[in-house]
Amino acid sequence: MGLHRGRGAGEGQYMRREPSATIIALAIALVLSCTRVATAGERVRIGPVPDWVARIPNMPRPLTKKEREQPFVLLLDDLQASNVNGKRQEYARQIIALNTRVAVENFSGLHLLLDSDRETATVHRIAIFRNGKLIDVTNRAQLRTQRVASSLDSERRANQTLISYVIPDLRAGDIVDMEVTLNGDLASLPGRFIVEVEEKFGKMEVSLLHRRIVATRKKPIHLDLVADHPPPIDRSSSDRLVWEWEIPHYKQPKTFSDAPAWFPQIPAIRISDFRDWAEIVAWGLHTLRPRRRPSRPIRKLAHELAGTATTSWEKLKAVLGYVQNNIRYLGDGLLARNGYVPLRPQDVASQGVGDCKDKVALAIALLEALDVRAWPVLTNATKGRVPRALPTPFAFDHALLAVRLGDHDIWVDPTLRPLPDGSPNFGLPAIDAGLVLRKGERALVPPAGLPVASDGTLLATGDPPLPGRRPDNDADTEIERRLDLTTSQAELHVIFKGGTAEIMRMAIELGARKKMEENILALIEPWLWNLDPGDTFVLEGDPHHLRYDARMQAKLTDQLWKNDGSQEYLRLLPNYILQLMGRMTVDDERPDTVPVAFPGRGQPHILERYVLKTPPGWYLKSLHRKLRREGYVISVDTSKQKGLFVVTYRFRALRDHLMPPEARQMAEDRKKLRGEWSYWLWRSATRHRAASSQ
After folding, report:
1. CATH architecture of the domain with range 2-48+71-253
2. Contact between 387 and 277 (Cβ < 8 Å)
3. Which of 188, 243, 390, 434 could form a disulfide with 224 if both were Cys (CB 3.0 to 4.6 A apart)?
4. Which pLDDT score is estimated for 141?
């Protein structure tokens, strides 16, 4: 608990907390450890509140009886941002009542995360309201500073400073009042006015939520209100734009953990002075794309990689393979480290580490040294969708690479791990669009990826290949159960491909093989046989996907077989598909406007198959069914192949989510799948029944 202000978003994290420190995050936390104690110096000073700020009067105030019964109370959360004094300033004030000893122990004070080269902070007041008296402790609070180390290299100079004020002599019943202003431009965005405020407070009620934007009219300012955030009161004048919000007794709406990442659930204010996407392209070309000719070391490296390659396609494969295999990906942020500016390509190559923008810049330099044209692409990998309502650099959290091959572009992701055999991975994250940082580009465009199978196999042919999509019948997860009823031998094959296979492979590399075996055994458990201690279990992989083989002897027990007196039968069910469908549930409190995301990432595609070898006298009814909904397709088919009965179930999601009414419909479809579409392999006691079967 305390006033936390700072910037930084990790790779793949949409900047819900505005990276320039405009968010006030209320959280339970201990005082952070510090490396040294220092005076404020030039980075932090004590000074008056700026003249453009509208201070909330009559604060702090005494608590009501109901408020005194709570451990802590957030009386005021105030955030104001301005550019009227020729520079960017963000004022924040927070008033917190600490009613219990536990609340006092968990209070972490005032924390500021500053860009070491760009920002300064002005502390206006730190005060304690105790027994009706206001005690100013600004000069008594203990100031600690800590250099934030870069995750790229422990020896590399850090570019952020954490400043903490520890407030002395706090007691149960105290009310703490903290005011501070941050001064300075955003990293890599000099002169720009961008603000993002997400009203995220968990279950805590804010007695008064105050927001205020003050801006000059030199540039148009664009406003986007997210997730039903209340509109502002317009207090603008002829020379100033002023928007203000006063929201008493604010409570964050209920959120749902299974909603898609792209769906905004928490009210937010988003402000930008970028006119359109074309202006962001112009900014990005200056900031993210290398502006110098490739250096001599880069040119030498590029020609060594290309070898005898003569076409742009061959050169791209060589460069992408090198960057994916040799440059370790540390996703500490498109913005969090060094602003939006990538490191020099030769530094990335020599040190062997980089984030998304660093790897893209290196790939561009190498390709340009080989006369292949390439550009950065900005996208949003975490949400999978780029927010379109407001042109702002904060709509993006990841950088890709667009390469010109012939008369078309190909998008690739240099941050992906190569395929297990070391060949380049041409996959892309699940995204809907990107912004190519190329002169003349004016809008977001759909991704131009190559068709890649879920196991990583490149499906495109030709030189150069054409963009495309993977086949509709290519499943992400395949489960095949083989039962030989003539010898009671049961064999199970579970094939995980794509992103799931990558997770499995990484877990095995990290020494979690035993855990993987336990997970596979857990998948087997609800199926048709019990595992005995003597059963063999083999976990294997190949260069393109992981394959899990569980081989065992199974007894035909009563649990396996059913007998109603006239026939003996075996029931076949798509357990894995049923498990997935069973997780798509919604409660009555969920609004119909809040979608439900499929488990995992993206659109699941599952193929579940039985292959059965039976003695004479066993039959399987022929059945072919397909159920198509707006959000998914379920099908079941039976066939006889080389003397074997085959039952194939397939589930394919058509998008990454369902709306609550669709999820409720899925519950009914799941019943149909368990009942009408389950299969019965049976042996009849009467000749008539056997003859009428197929």
Report:
1. Sandwich (2.60)
2. no
3. 390
4. 84
